[in-house]
Structure formats: C-alpha cells, structure tokens
Amino acid sequence: MNTKKLGLSIFREQFKWSLWYAFTILLIYVAVLLYQVYVEAIEFVDFSMFSNGSSSIFMLVIGILSTYSFFDYFAKRGITRRNFFKATIGASGLLAVAISLTIFLMNGLLHLLVQTTGWDITWTNEVSPAGFFSFMEVFISYVLIHVLYYLIGWMIGLGYYRYGWIIGTLPFVPIAIIFVNITGLLWGLSHINFFPHLSLESFPLSIALSIVFGGLLLYVNHRLIKDITVAM
Fold first, then answer.
1. Among 11, 82, 111, 145, which residue's CB has the most CB atoms within a 10 Å radius?
2. Could you report the per-residue pLDDT of 10-46, keeping only the tens digit for each?
3. Where are the transmembrane segments (predicted)?
C-alpha cells in the first residue's frame, strides 16, 4: 500500500469516528437549545463555538489512538515507519478540514432551523461570520487548531508506545499540557489555557507561529517514530 492510499485509509476510519462525535455533540446541543426555547430562556453560544473545545479534545484523543490503533496494525503488516509517518500527516490535515467543515455545516443548518421555526434564541459568542473572507479566517483557525491538537495527541501516543505507560506518561503528559497551552495562546482559546487573557490578536502572526509550532511537533514525532520498536 502506497503512502496516499494508506493516508486515505487512515482518514476514512478516523472520519467515521468523527461523525459519531459530531452527531453526539449535535444531539446534546439541540437538547439544550430546546430547553432554552420551551423551558427557560438562557443566553447560548452557537454550535461552532459550542463544539470548538470538545472537537479539539477529540482530535487530541484521535492523535493518541493513531499509534495504537493504526501504527501497530499497519507496521505488523509491512508498512514502513516512514510511509506511516507521511500518511498520518496527510490524514491529520484531511481530518482537520473535514471535521471543521462538518461543524460549520451543522452550525449553518441549525441557524436555518432557528430562522425557519421562529424560535427566540439569544446567541452569544456567535461564530457565524458574514462574508467569505471573514468565514475563511475562522475556518482556517479551526483547521490549524485541530491539526495542532492531533499532533500533540500523536506525540503522547508515540511516547506511550515507545517508552511504556510509566516512562511515557511522566515526561510526555506535562509536555503535552504545555503544548496545548501554547496552542491556546496562539489562538486565544479559553479551554486548557494558563493564559486565557492573553492573545496575539494578529491573524497572520497566529498562522505563521502555528506553522512553526506544527513543524516542531512533526520533528518531535518523527524522532519518536523513526526507530520505534514494533510491539509483538
């Protein structure tokens, strides 16, 4: 299996998991929305903002599982570490785009539903930008955040796989927490962020630093997987 086919295979399986996540979050959101409409009026964020934190954590978990669920499986079937590394990079990018598109599509459908039904909804922190360029800014930020969380999770999974649960936990979990906070600082995120009031407030700078940070994570992950021993 070549790198492209391997990457698509990994992406398809992980996207199936993502759809289960997205529909679960959607059901929870709709339940809260109905509570707001028929029981008690409360201010509420829109779906894209509501799911942003959980979707990032979901990508972190997917990254962790990529080693045990995919590397171990394919390595035992003759796939080289190099091919798997390249394939996973491609899969992570595709998954980040796909899950971001899914979230925004669901968000648009929910807004259409609210307008059609005439429900009196008070939105706060609404992420439904008007205009193509405004939408692209938000979309690109979501994609980059999701990619970074995936790469951080992948680092944790590789650390566990390479060094075992005890040695893999002691250094890699604290490092991952630091990296998650760096991501939060880059994009002004409030979830798992030691600096919630700090923000770069510059979209181009956030993109540039995210690319540099992503490159650092790829370097770390490449070093971890380069000569990793496949568990028998």
1. 145
2. 999 999 999 999 999 999 988 888 877 776 666 667 7
3. 20-37, 57-75, 87-110, 130-151, 163-190, 202-220
15 within 8 A of 96, measured Cβ to Cβ: no
Number of domains, the chain: 1
Separation of alpha carbons 120 and 123, rounded Å: 10
CA torsion angle 160 93 177 67 (round to 10): -10
Q: Is residue 96 part of a domain?
A: yes
In this structure, what are the phi and psi dihedrals at residue 200, rounded to the nearest 5 degrees?
A: -70, -30
The token pair at 147 is 């990619």
Which residue is associated with the tokens 């045990």?
A: 68
What residue numbers bound the domain in which 110 lies? 3-227
- The beta strands (E) that lie in the chain are given as 43-45, 122-124
pLDDT tens for each residue of 112-139: 887 787 776 666 555 555 566 777 888 8
User: Residue 54: pLDDT band by 50, 70, 90 thresholds?
Assistant: confident
With respect to residue 232, please indicate whether it lies within any of the assigned structural domains: no
